[in-house]
Amino acid sequence: MSENTFGSGQAGDNAFPDPATLTYEQARDELVETVKILELGQMSLDESLKYWERGEALAKRCEVLLDGASARVEQAIGGAESGTSES
Q1: Annotated region Disordered: where (predicted)?
Q2: Cβ distance 54 to 16 under 8 Å?
Q3: Which residues, other chains included, contact 24 with Cβ-Cβ below 8 Å and sequence gap of 6+?
Q4: I need a surface site. Which of 11, 64, 71, 87 has the fewest CB within 10 A?
């Protein structure tokens, strides 16, 4: 092996950051890239399944973050409405 060679060419189990640590934008951008990679269809079944599972985890992270944002907006609207109705 050459001294300029790094790694085995195979992604390890921890090659990607934990979706729970990603912001919405980071998860969404990685999900878009994951879909593009899957659409190329140039991987083995095992590789495709790993990307599919990663995509599912990223989509779930986006959903959780959007649900949280939605709840915050509803809370803010509810607070604003209760503040104006008391005036």
Answers
A1: 1-20
A2: yes
A3: 61, 62, 65, 66, 69
A4: 87
pLDDT in tens, 3-36: 554 445 555 666 789 999 999 999 999 999 999 9
Structural domain includes residue 34? yes
What does pTM read for this prediction?
0.73
Does 4 map to a domain?
no
The position carrying tokens 């989509």 is 59
**Into how many domains does the chain fold?**
1
Determine, yes or no, domain membership for 11. no
Structural domain contains residue 14: no
Only one residue has tokens 């495709």, namely 48
